[in-house]
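User: Please run a holo structure prediction.
Assistant: Happy to. Please share the sequence and the ligand.
User: Here you go; the ligand is nickel (II) ion.
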Amino acid sequence: MTQFYSLKEPVKYEGPNTTKDLAFRWYNPTQKVLGKTMAEHLRFAVCYWHTLCWPGLDPFGGDTFNRQWHHMADEMAAARMKADIMFETLNLLNVDFFCFHDLDIAPEGNSLKEFNDNVTAIANIFEKKMAASNKKLLWGTANMFSNRRFMAGAASNPDPDVFAYCAAQVKHCLDVTHGLGGENYVMWGGREGYETLINTNIGHELDQVKRFLSLVVEYKHKIGFKGPILLEPKPQEPTKHQYDYDVATCYNTIAAMGLQKDVKLNIEQNHAILAGHTFEHEIALASALGVFGSIDLNRGDYQSGWDTDQFAMNVPELTLAMYEILKAGGFTTGGMNFDAKIRRQSIDADDILHAHVGSMDACARALLNAAKMVEDGKLAKLVAGRYSKWNTPQNQAMLAGQESLDAIAARVLSSGIEPQPKSGRQEYIESLINSYC
Ligand code: XLS
Ligand code: NI
Ligand code: NI
């Protein structure tokens, strides 16, 4: 068992007035908010890839973190060390869940067979650690974007051998996720898109992506995996254009295959920003379409246009997102996965703890603010008020399609309907929201 951090005891809730550096000021896991504990509301997860696999590189420089396991000759020993540190992290942060790509947890080896065996070996270690510590798997996913075989796409690759290879890789990763009691299975299509249209058949690639999704759903039923498959929208990066552009585009794919019951969405803040939306817009839309699943929590940079995956620390912004999550009914199988990385100059092990604790506190404050907004009901009443005229029997009938276009036209002309504009009161509402924060 390694000891990676300087901290020995789990971070505790100490309240907002504590002077301790590493303490929760707002996140009090057992505190009840709107009938559920904070831990039940927020369902935090630590991710493997940014926390333990990314070495701090950028396009102009390499490894800054200099972690021991990146410099070990025995790759399986390094993988076991990472597993130890993941559980050390979960225990210190008092976080219940973790998430991984198959490639995060185990080395690729020289064949898919070897890779599968490595993944299984580490999963067996997880199983024991999970039983001993009561930690859970929020989701697993297959990395089908790093290896050069995926450079022209995974399921959307022009080469059917790659499509078949992906099927084999996802089958194993879904088996492993299921075996560990994973609550969801994620599919982010990092290479499912194109670089240039002049060598691409979009229609064919979209057919491939849809077939792949339906194969995964079929298999999930075959093995009795109860959780949803979660698509993760992102507009670009690494490919120039990704097919799972945003919530609306993903919904198109899901609805085209009639898979709304089995496939939901994993929504990431930074990806929403890259798609030209707000985070809360993407959550609200997914909820309206019945496909809200889970959250990849991070923060994009509003100037750079990259997927910077910073830790989310902005309380007013998070308040609006949390309000939409509460309105959506909260999480069922989903949760808040920290798909976030510390900056490459944050080279101390404890920086990982500070990042998570700070963001967990920001989420807890946002939850408390959003709960006030829900309890108070003023905002909901204002919004409902704008639509209240739809509640008359006549307007309900119009919405239900019981009145034809020409019948509506006749009614307007005979009754002399003349719409009366009303204030949208945006500044009043913005000030009202500030009053909860
Ligand atoms: C990358 C994605 C990735 C997914 C999992 O931008 O966010 O980390 O969450 O494959
Ligand atoms: Ni993500
Ligand atoms: Ni991302």
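The chain has two domains: 32-376, 381-436.
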